[in-house]
Design brief:
This protein is α/β, with parallel strands linked by helices and 329 residues long. It has nine helices and 19 strands. The strands form three sheets. The protein has a seven-stranded mixed β-sheet, covered by helices on one side. A six-stranded mixed β-sheet has the order 1-2-3-4-5-6, with helices on one face. The protein is globular, with a radius of gyration of 20 Å. It starts with a strand and ends in an 11-residue tail after the last strand.
């Protein structure tokens, strides 16, 4: 029997009777990171990387949760579990599962390039590697982070000189904090929507170095926000803010912005390529580093990536999951 299998509740470790990032309510869940598609409500017990504890508590409220340091091992019914940095967002992890001479690694979501804020991705040797494939197409090759930040700062400076605010749309956990960290030397204040501010507080509490930001409240007017950078999720940027700001420019920070059509679909003025997932080369790099012979491809372009792996010497297969393809994109 495989160490990890899929059932109606999610990825299941039968010998330990526990789940990894389950998509339905279970008794015990090991959680790779705190994005909503991987960490869901209703589990009786949560086990997560220790740096994720304040973030999980902020999102989930009063739940039964236990944190483990990276590399710390715990055994459940003879099966050994440990968390290892995934580089995806602050506190994210891959989950190593070992027992009866077999080692599997479930990657969760990950990126192989360090963003300067999250713990950098660490390859974990294993027999079987379960990998995401969100950007599993050769066209997805990320530009250098410093170049992207330089472009964002130029855009911000230009608008500030013209008396306009800039609105940067980003996921409230992970992407937002990465941008705040990388744009800390910008030309003006950074205002954050309440959902982002709450995550900022939790990330700081977890020990990450994040500059102070100002809350975006409905008491603020156009003059208060002139020349500022506003970080907000796409769903939170409503008609209220368009009326308040009057003159402004919008942008999206996402891996999807590499494709020109994506900017039009998101109805923004600018698109900046900033992804919290591995690009095509990063996926291949991660697979090679694990030394695994068997690769199980999940959400994203899993069919294409699986086929490429099979054609290049790996034993590759696909696994359908209920994780979202865009969370933290």
């Amino acid at each position: 029997m495989d160490l990890i299998v899929e059932n109606e509740n999610g990825l299941y470790v039968p010998e330990a009777d526990v789940y990894l990032d389950p998509w339905r309510k279970v008794k015990k869940a090991f959680i790779s990171h705190i994005h909503a598609d991987h960490c869901r409500y209703g589990n009786l017990q949560y086990i997560c990387p220790r740096p994720s504890l304040p973030i999980l508590k902020k999102r989930m409220g009063p739940v039964s949760v236990h944190g483990l340091d990276y590399g710390e091992k715990t055994t459940v019914r003879g099966i050994e579990f440990s968390f290892h940095p995934a580089g995806h967002i602050p506190g994210s992890a891959q989950i190593r599962v070992a027992g009866q001479g077999r080692v599997w690694v479930y990657s969760g979501d990950y990126k192989t390039r360090s963003d300067g804020l999250s713990q950098p991705f660490e390859p974990v040797k294993c027999d079987t590697f379960i990998t995401e494939c969100t950007f599993g197409l050769p066209v997805y090759k990320w530009p250098k982070q410093a170049e992207v930040y330089r472009s964002i700062l130029e855009w911000w400076n230009e608008n500030k000189q013209n008396g306009r605010a800039v609105v940067l749309q980003a996921y409230s956990l992970g992407k937002a904090q990465r941008l705040i960290h990388g744009l800390r030397e910008g030309p003006g204040p950074i205002f954050c929507h309440s959902a982002v501010q709450q995550m900022n507080t939790a990330v700081r509490k977890a020990g990450f170095d994040l500059p102070k930001t100002r809350p975006l409240t409905k008491k603020l007017g156009k003059e208060d926000l002139k020349g500022a950078l506003i970080i907000i999720s796409p769903t939170a940027f409503t008609g209220h803010w368009t009326k308040v700001l009057k003159t402004y420019e919008t942008a999206s920070a996402s891996g999807w912005m590499l494709i020109r059509e994506a900017k039009r679909r998101r109805s923004v003025d600018r698109g900046f390529v900033v992804s919290d997932h591995a690009d095509w080369e990063g996926l291949i790099e991660a697979v090679k580093a694990t030394g695994a012979e068997r690769i199980i491809c999940t959400h994203g372009y899993q069919q294409i990536f699986s086929r490429w792996l099979s054609e290049n010497g790996w034993r590759a297969e696909e696994l359908t999951t209920e994780y979202g393809e865009s969370a933290g994109d």
